[in-house]
Design goal:
The structure is a single chain. By secondary structure, this protein is an alpha+beta fold. 35% of the residues lie in helices and 15% in strands. α4 crosses α6, α15 crosses α18 and α15 crosses α20.
Length: 796
Amino acid sequence: MDRLERWIAIAGIAVLSVIAVAGFALAIYAAWLFHGMPDASDLADYRPPTATRVYAWDGTLIGEFSRERRIYVPYDQIPPKLAEAFLAAEDHNFFRHQGIDVGGLGRAVIKDMWNAMRGKRFEGGSTITQQVAKNVLLNNDPTIGRKLKEAILARRLEQTLTKEQILDLYLNEIWLGYRSYGVGAAAYNYFGKSLTDLDLAEMAYLAALPKGPDNYQPVTHKAAAIGRRNWILGQMIDLGWVSRAEGQAAMKEDLKVQTAPARAHYRDADYFVEEVRQEALASLGQNLNEGGYYMRTTLDPRLQSLAREALMKGLETYDRRHGWRGAWGHVETLDNWEQQAKAISPPAERRGWRSAVVEEVAGKSVRVEVAGARPGELVPEDVRWALGGKGLNKGDLVFVEPAVGGGYNLRQVPLVNGAIVVVEPYSGRVLALVGGYSYSLSKFNRATQAMRQPGSAFKPFVYATALENGYTPASEVLDAPIELRGASADETWKPRNYENKYYGMLSLRKGLELSRNTMTVRLAQAIGMQKIRDTAIRAGVVNDMSPVLAMALGAGETTPFRLTGAYSAFINGGRRVEPHLIELVQDREGKTVYRADKRDCPSCSGPYQGEDPPTLQPDGKPILDPITAYQMTSMMQDVVAHGTAYQAHVLGPEYGGKTGTTNEYRSAWFVGFNPSMVVGVFVGYDDNRSLGDNETGAAAAVPIFIDFMAQAMRGHAVGQFRPPDDARFQLVNGRNEAFRNGTQPGGKPLVGPQPYNRVWPNGKISGADNAAAAAQPPPPPPPTPKPAQQDLSGLY
């Protein structure tokens, strides 16, 4: 072999060696590439993480729970024009290729190789199928390896799923900016609409976003956004998917989106929605945030808004009674004051409040500059209020609100707080719940989390226990000073009445009406605290309670939520219903996974064919005799008619309730009701300090109840409390009193049915005429304090 042949042989061996090494390297790379590659068949049952949407009982969206803001919309419910807009923008050959657009991929590879040499990021060229493979199964690493995996998986996807399934995944998975994953969330966030309500121009705009949502944000890049949208419309015209007239009309539309993506347009239920989230999280776990559940709650948006406003107004009224505390900030110069004022924002719920700076104080006139509005003067009444407190000085930072008739009202954020709960007494549905003055300022939910002494608002459970154990509303107990042994031999407990007034022998009705403390202690001592404890636990006021006499005056702790729910038994005939916020939960397939109403109804599931409606048993568990419940309702009506809650009598005769005030005026309560709802109101400081002298349940809580009820029942019939059929009525002290058969005191029974007769303070009988009752004038009642001083219910 000559030298040439030797070199040829060596070269051949070298080439074969290189080929072998390259082949080996390629095999290793291929093994690495395929190692751990996701299985495309996994997508056959894949569902993208989807937001749980929370609705009020009337269908109003009130909240969403999610890791990724997504509203899943099945492909068959996506408007065809929307799908075509995305195809025109991203992959108009989608229904013709097998996962890879060879021509497009070749151009993309050449461009990406050039980008790699220049140190730039790889670009697209991916089909919709490849984008699904990347978004769902892979990551977004800018490597050739990932692109190869993407192409291989795209082919496998096409063999596993239909085109429609792939497009379903794409349109529901893709990130479109503005907190939006998928087209359903994007339509809602950008335009405040469902997909079916979008017009052609809006659909084309959404299709522009996959290229880079931030690049086409209308607020910052409106011209680019319209340009990209119109290019897509042009593509749709060229592809014959819209007519030229339709496309050109859409191009002429302006592009307007919401200023910010709102989770829900209804914004008065923050405390309610968060409580729902906590309850649902406990039962559904983290799947709550990605399971796409439909959740129907018990919320009535109208009542919720009224409750929020009534509570805020009531707390502001209390706060105003206790004076102007001074400005919340101060600036030395008025230059750039608005920037400094941004340090503290007004409550988000007070949308009319604005930050302002005092520009000038001249005698009894105060002029303010207002952020985002014209300057003006404070109304004289508010100037007097401020000057009577900490005063105002030039440079003070305050909150103001436009006043009716011109000028500005001076506003102050209350330090006091409170809660209001509204329950439907027959089902336990929580119609409204507000856990504080402002959720934006404090997320602590005082309705469900604040454990406080209810004071005399607990007394109805003492009197109900007495009625269950041989007493009647006409039974008399001594109201006089009492001294009891304390915790140790050398200690005594001397409970006393508000204002230290005592009225001698009083009926149970009058004792509850006037909230007699010493009488209540004697009653509790006679029937036994163990029985009262059992009643309170059965009603749901507490889980447990020490059977000591102080508890009869409300020394135990409960929440407004529990106490309000427990009062339901007095209205619904003696049944305990569980107050609840969630009515129904269904998964994304429409399967019911939770229903609050557990009652069995075998005939409810079939189609209605004209038969009589099914009869359901009343909700809840019996805890009181229905006659006891009716007697308590009637007795608490007198608390409103001429007792400690006298202010509320302006609402009408079919209202009842009980006030509560605790030691040193630390908490003020009122739980009131009519035949259709129970409303619990609590007012108190978070640190449990005193509310101030004479800040009783009547002064601080009852006005909130009145404000809410007056608006809630406007235009609605109140109804009447109906007694049980087996109740027996007899005239006692000029009143038509209900009794269990055989417990009536001696006297002349009333003639005929007497379900609605009520004797008012003037001695007249309302309802059906009854000659026997009218013939007997009532005896004079014990002296009653003036309405302004009628909360007699403190703990002492």
